[in-house]
Give the backbone structure.
Amino acid sequence: MKITVAGAGYVGLVTSAGLADIGHNVTCIDIEKDKIDMLQNGRSPIYEPGLESLIEKNLLNGQLQFTMNPEQAYSGADIIFIAVGTPEQQDGSVDLKYIHVVSHTIAHYINKDVIVCTKSTVPVGTNELIKQIIHSRKSSAIKAEVVSSPEFLREGSAVLDFFQGDRIVIGADDPDAASIMEQIYLPLKIPIMKTDIRSAEMIKYASNAFLAAKISFINEIANLCEKVGANIEEVAFGIGQDKRIGHDFLKAGIGYGGSCFPKDTKALVQLAGNAKHQFELLEAVIKVNNRQQTLPVIKAKEILGSLKNKKVAVLGLAFKPDTDDVREAASLKIIKELLEEGANVRAYDPIAIPNAKKVLGDSVEYAYNIHYALYEADIAMILTEWEQIKHVRLNMFQTYMKEPIVIDGRNCYSLEEIQKYPITYLSIGRPDVYRDKPKDELRIINL
Ligand code: NAD
């Protein structure tokens, strides 16, 4: 089987390298020359643990090729995966321009029977649109089936998720096409669910909406904990022990970001609206998340008053650990707010600085180690729970900062540990710790 993957982003690259690794012959095509040049030299344009070595290995053994040439990629292909971006538009709806372009290109170059499988997250009904585009342009002698197989990988553990995912969803009208797709995935030994195309499309949005709801729910409980003097860590553990609830996605913090949850939740609200259904629950989830991201600046002002000319050390720029992705990262919104307040920001991240620079430019100073980020700072804000940040020696805050004041948006440290140091420490949903208070006297604000 000749497999082609359109798009060499997070999903396309992991899919390409993963499928090559389980024995398929894979060609991955992208329209960005820089990406393809890097990939042809065995280098990954994105940071994802294990990805570069997987690419290198399969390039060397000839299972994987990269190209910008559509004729080479699509003619003769048996299966074509679509993994192009589906960004959001101003009104929250999905911008399908990349899907349109790639569908037209595929239709132009296919020259034999083919299955086109959409991995991109697309609104319900989009696969029918892809089918129409392809059918309107291809020769009638060619049979082209369109299948939906949404992607569930998590950035930061995408390679692991490819090989050990919870399920693979195949949405197809044609049982033969579904069986062929099943065969492609078979070596992974991951449970496969076959369904109709519209349900497959909806499963992806419903999954992300549910996970986002879990995050906003625990964040609202955290906000309440702060007001009534409870500790969210205790509460989350207590409710997570119930098997019906589980412990995953019950970590309070400054909300979700990234390239998926924010856009997919908004897209589902839009999709519902188009179907004359107001998705009030999901609207609230989005509202809570937006509010959550304002907490670090609110808490900083509670302590320092004005932030004008204050030096703020930002620890963490990526939207979550183990990725260099800053799309919709809480850090970007928070830094924007800090700059509007007149603060001077020095930001540290182990790997996301180049991507953050593309958005923030010279508006902030970048620190390539934590010491330098903290040096002479009036306040530190932890925005991504990188291992490097979680395992920092706590006396560093005292040693390097003007005043050891820490706003921890990711609850990285235990309160017991923090109390051993003279640090003023405000986290999410837990009692505040003030450096000038004796160890056993935690001050609870807003009680
Ligand atoms: P991305 O922006 O990282 O990559 C998309 C790639 O497609 C880019 O490299 C772009 O140059 C390329 N591209 C655009 N038009 C093309 C064309 N005509 N031909 C070939 N390549 C083209 O996007 P991503 O994060 O990989 O996401 C892709 C899709 O998968 C989106 O729909 C997203 O919602 C979904 N998804 C993403 C994740 C994730 O964690 N990133 C997880 C699950 C699903």
Q: What stands out?
A: The chain has three domains: 2-195, 204-292, 295-442.
